[in-house]
Specification:
The complex is a heterodimer of chains A (109) and B (875). Chain A is of the alpha+beta class. Chain A has a single domain, classed as Arc Repressor Mutant, subunit A. Chain A is built from four helices and three strands, in the order H-E-H-H-E-E-H. A three-stranded antiparallel sheet of chain A has the order 1-3-2. In chain A, helix 1 packs across helix 4. The longest helix of chain A is centred in the last third of the chain and has 27 residues. The relative contact order of chain A is 0.17. Chain B is α+β, with helices and mostly antiparallel strands and 875 residues long. Chain B has four domains: 65 residues; 206 residues, no CATH class; 174 residues, no CATH class; 198 residues, no CATH class. Chain B has 27 helices and 23 strands. The longest helix of chain B has 37 residues. Chain B is globular and about 135 Å long. The chains are: A alpha+beta (109), B alpha+beta (875). At the A-B interface, helix 2, helix 3 and strand 3 of A face helix 2 and helix 4 of B.
Chain lengths: 109, 875
């Protein structure tokens, strides 16, 4: 099972990790955050978040636990681990390089 | 590892957790939408829409908690089990066949394991050889004391030697609770040579191995446990053996066995008097073992020893020299001799039974694959890859073969228990059945391999889209595979039937061997008395016993001897040692061995051994001390006095003993059943001792002839002997049972091969039946057309039978070729039966062809009764 460290595919991971860097959150919260912050520019299908979350969990970048939310619902809360924080740093640098690279190509053409 | 179990058993929990998470997400989204003013139902729908396909998400997410490979195996397994349960009669048939194949194979493996594979419990056993000289009267290697000592250190092929006294030595435990023990006498180098350390105490030293050293003893583990209750502080205790106190100095490990495979209770120093071993080819005889130097083979050792032997025997006349050879054999070969080849034959035979069983199962699976073609083609059309379908088929085979293996183990256990219960002595070394790890591993491997064998074919012959095209429902190649399988099964069954036939013929030949004596109405008893009995006590005992037995009503005659034919324990001398006074010694070399027995005068009358000339011993012989009487066998008379009347002649049997021949007795089997009798002579037990007889034998054999029922006689004899000697173990057996025991190995082979033959015949016939029925079913429409066009039912039936006959004849021809090829291996197991016996092969082939026709009869009748209208309407 190849661990996807593909630069371009890592975009969703990056978004999730970045969101979690603000503090622990559940899947819905993460989806909502990405949507609001990107002003609905990035509208991922909400469900597709979960395979990514569980993969990050398997790779120990996030930790999950069930808790009760303020409005009384049970939710699975994800929290960034130390490894996750490091991964986020790498992913940010990586993303930066990639977007710069892409931008240059776009300009060049 | 944790995840593994999680994956196997917690899958539903993983699913539940993900579902709950998704539900919680949906609920939160619906809450939010509701706050934006949507109705509950609209909010729900919107939440679902924005989430996407929850089922697919679940599946995509689940994979991060499971091993997908394991997962699909699990799926295949469930599928396989479901598939097998759906068709129970098929599964039961297959399991039955597999259990039969694996069960018999495992049982036979258990029997031959000790002979073929189980490691000898010594250090570096591959290099241990038994070496020495072989002469006509002793075919197992031995050395004379002088040669052993002289050769020691001069043999480049060996880096260590050791020796022991040959034969079984009984000794008496002469203290409270006396008992007869088996005592082995070995050299001080013996235990280190075999790499054996006593578990308690020590080995004896070189000084303790010198003549007249204070006696010491090592105990066997079992003897220590039974006699001393395994108490650890026994070192230094005295043990009285044959009225001589010895000091216990150690206990041997539990797994130690003598290289001779004989039982032993006590090991004593052999205390060889080296100073007395001064002449080549004389002195004590020793069993000698050696360790080959690395890089030497037994054959090379033989050629290295040859010059040393030639030096030692250079003085002997050429006739003798030619009969003395060097022998060097690996320990395993020396221990098991012919049994190795027999064991290989048995193992290969049972493995071929298993192979045939696998072929049968393969053709059953192929047949079922044919009937499941539509299902398989459908699954393929729906996107299952060929690889996945093949994996399904293989998983199914493995489920079958492993279940078959479990059942087979149970069957093997049962078979072995039954075998041991019916004939406890039939398998040397197998006294109780226990399932060791080795046996279990063997059965498991067998199941896996057979699963692979019969699973492969169906797996790679999956259905293609062709099935949907109507008439051409089967590709021709598949049936040709089944044809080949059935032909092979028939061939294999012919080979097995031939082997069984040969074994049965051997058994019947052996059982009808003319023994030279009459076994009916004779009961024998044998016992061995302690060494404290001197000649007088022995004489008194046998006289009293004879009187008591004679006084019983219905007893016709009573005789005493030191051994009972056929077989021993027997004493013998080389033929060249028998001289005729006044004539030059024979120059025919050693001339084979001449066994002899000491018997009382009624011996010939009791066993109905014919006296051809002269008479038996009489009381009047007692006086002729100068030339005591001897009765010689017919073949000895011919050999000693060709063309002369032997009665009245004188023969010298030992240095000083000259005997008068008073009678000539018919030849009696005295070497077991399968070996031609040796020339033999009888000495009178009641005569005063003379030099040849030496000390009277402590082994006493009594035989009575009576027309009463043998059960009475057996208990009488036991009672009478126990009345005189309460503590002595007595072996009572009728002559008929005794003779039957000599054919135990042959009976075992006959039973085994007959079982194999029946199994393979049933497999072949059922395989043929299945194939013919399948062919008929496939040709229903064609047959319908034929009948509609006017073919007679008889013609149709003949056509079907003829098609079956084609396989049978092809299989039989192949089988005959196979039987001729394997005949070489069987030869050593046969007696007076040619391994290429044309009669047996002919009978077997006829039987097989009859069975083949019988198998085709039912399908041929079905075919003949085909209603053309129905046949043409189907499909």
């Amino acid at each position: 099972m190849a661990r996807s460290s593909d630069t371009l595919l890592g975009a969703l991971d990056l978004l999730v990790l970045k969101t979690l860097a603000r503090g622990p959150n559940h899947g819905f919260g993460i989806a909502l955050h990405i949507q609001t912050v990107s002003e609905n520019l990035l509208r991922v299908e909400e469900g597709s978040l979960y395979p990514a979350l569980h993969r990050l969990e398997r790779d120990k970048f996030v930790k999950a636990s069930w808790t009760q939310t303020e409005n009384g619902r049970r939710a699975r809360i994800y929290k960034l681990t130390a490894a996750g924080r490091q991964r986020l740093e790498e992913a940010e640098i990586n993303w930066d390089n990639v977007s710069k690279g892409v931008a240059r190509i776009l300009r060049f053409v | 590892m944790k995840r593994f179990w999680y994956a196997l058993f917690r899958r539903s929990r993983v699913d539940a957790e993900i579902s709950e998470e998704i539900q919680s997400h949906l609920a939160m989204r619906a809450d939010l939408e509701g706050q934006l003013g949507l109705s509950a139902a609209e909010a729900q729908a919107s939440a679902h829409r924005q989430f996407g396909n929850a089922t697919i998400i679940l599946e995509d997410t689940r994979q991060f908690h499971l091993y997908p490979f394991l997962e699909s195996i699990l799926q295949d397994l469930t599928h396989a089990v479901r598939q097998l349960r759906r068709n129970p009669s098929f599964s039961i048939t297959v399991l039955f066949i597999l259990a039969l194949g694996i069960g018999t194979s495992t049982a036979v493996f258990t029997v031959v394991d000790g002979v073929l594979f189980r490691p000898v419990p010594y250090a570096d056993p591959g290099r241990i050889v038994a070496y020495g000289i072989k002469v006509p009267f002793e075919t197992r290697e031995f050395q004379f004391g002088y040669d052993y000592l002289y050769w020691r250190g001069k043999i480049p092929a060996f880096d260590a030697l050791t020796s022991m006294f040959p034969g079984d030595q009984d000794c008496d435990l002469t203290e409270a609770n006396p008992a007869r023990l088996a005592c082995a006498h070995v050299e001080s180098t013996f235990l280190p040579f075999f790499g054996v350390q006593p578990v308690i105490g020590r080995n004896f030293t070189r000084d303790e191995d010198r003549p007249h050293a204070p006696p010491v003893a090592l105990l066997s583990y079992n003897f220590w446990r039974t006699r001393y209750g395994g108490q650890p502080n026994i070192l230094g205790l005295p043990i009285s053996l044959d009225n001589t106190p010895a000091k216990i100095i150690g206990v041997l490990p539990q797994n130690f066995v003598m290289p001779t495979l004989r039982r032993f209770d006590v090991i004593l120093p052999q205390q060889l008097n080296e100073a007395a071993q001064v002449f080549p080819n004389a002195g004590e005889t020793l069993r000698t073992f050696a360790r080959l130097r690395p890089g030497w083979t037994p054959a090379q050792a033989v050629s290295a020893l040859q010059p040393m032997l030639e030096r030692d025997i250079s003085g002997a006349p050429p006739a003798y020299r030619n009969e003395i050879h060097i022998g060097v054999r690996t320990l395993r070969e020396w221990q098991n001799g012919d049994r190795r080849q027999t064991s290989w034959v048995l193992l290969l035979a049972v493995l071929s039974v298993l192979l045939l069983a696998c072929m049968n199962v393969a053709s059953l699976l192929l047949a079922r694959a044919t009937s499941r073609q539509r299902e398989l083609a459908m699954r393929q059309a729906l996107g299952a890859s060929r690889g996945r379908l093949a994996r399904h088929a293989i998983t199914e085979s493995f489920v079958l073969s492993l279940c078959g293996g479990v059942l087979g183990c149970a069957l093997a256990l049962f078979l072995l228990k039954m075998l041991l219960a019916t004939s406890p002595n039939s398998i040397p070394g197998l006294t109780e059945v226990h399932f060791s790890v080795r046996i279990f591993v063997f059965a498991a491997l067998l199941s896996l391999v057979s699963g692979l064998v019969f699973g492969m074919l169906p797996a790679f012959r999956q259905a293609s889209m062709e099935v949907f095209t109507g008439w051409r429902a089967t590709s021709p190649s598949r049936t040709s595979i089944r044809d080949a399988l059935v032909t092979f099964q028939i061939a294999g069954s012919l080979v097995m039937l031939t082997a069984a036939g040969l074994m049965l013929r051997t058994l019947s030949k052996l059982e009808s061997v003319p023994l030279g004596l009459d076994t009916e109405h004779v009961v024998t008893a044998q016992f061995t008395l302690g060494s404290s009995y001197d000649a007088t006590r022995l004489m008194v005992l046998s006289e009293t016993l004879e009187q008591r037995l004679r006084n019983r009503p219905g007893v016709n005659s009573v005789t005493f001897a030191d051994s009972i034919p056929p077989g021993g324990p027997i004493r013998a001398m080389p033929f060249f040692a028998i001289r005729i006074p006044g004539r030059p010694p024979s120059d025919q070399g050693v001339g084979g061995m001449v066994p002899w027995r000491t018997v009382s005068s009624d011996y010939f009358r009791t066993f109905h051994v014919r006296l051809l000339q002269g008479r038996a011993f009489e009381a009047s012989d007692m006086g002729t001390r100068s030339a005591p009487a001897v009765v010689i066998s017919q073949s000895l008379a011919r050999k000693l006095f060709p063309g002369e009347n032997a009665v009245g002649q004188r023969v010298t049997l030992s240095e000083s003993g000259t005997y008068t021949v008073v009678g000539i007795a018919g030849d009696v089997r005295n070497n077991g059943l399968s070996v031609a009798p040796d020339p033999e002579f009888y000495l009178d037990r009641d005569q005063p001792l003379e030099t040849l007889r030496g000390a009277p034998s402590h082994h006493i054999a009594v035989a009575i002839r009576s027309t009463l029922r043998s059960q009475f006689l057996e208990s009488w004899m036991r009672d009478e002997i126990h009345a005189l000697e309460p503590a002595v173990p007595v072996d009572v057996i009728t002559m008929q049972d005794r003779v039957r025991d000599f054919a135990v190995p042959q009976r075992f082979h006959a039973i085994l091969f007959s079982t194999f033959a029946v199994i393979t015949l049933l497999l072949a016939v059922s395989g043929l039946y299945g194939l013919v029925r399948f062919l008929v079913a496939r040709r229903t429409q064609e047959i319908g057309v034929r009948i509609a066009l006017g073919a007679s039912p008889a013609g149709i039936a003949t056509m079907v039978v003829r098609s079956a006959l084609r396989f049978t004849l092809a299989g039989a021809a192949l089988g005959i070729a196979g039987a001729l090829l394997m005949s070489r291996w069987l030869e050593s197991m046969l007696y007076q039966t040619r391994a290429r016996d044309p009669l047996t092969i002919a009978i077997v082939a006829a039987l097989l062809i009859t069975c083949g026709i019988a198998a085709a009869l039912a399908p041929s009748i079905t075919a003949a009764r085909t209603d053309p209208m129905t046949a043409l309407r189907t499909d």
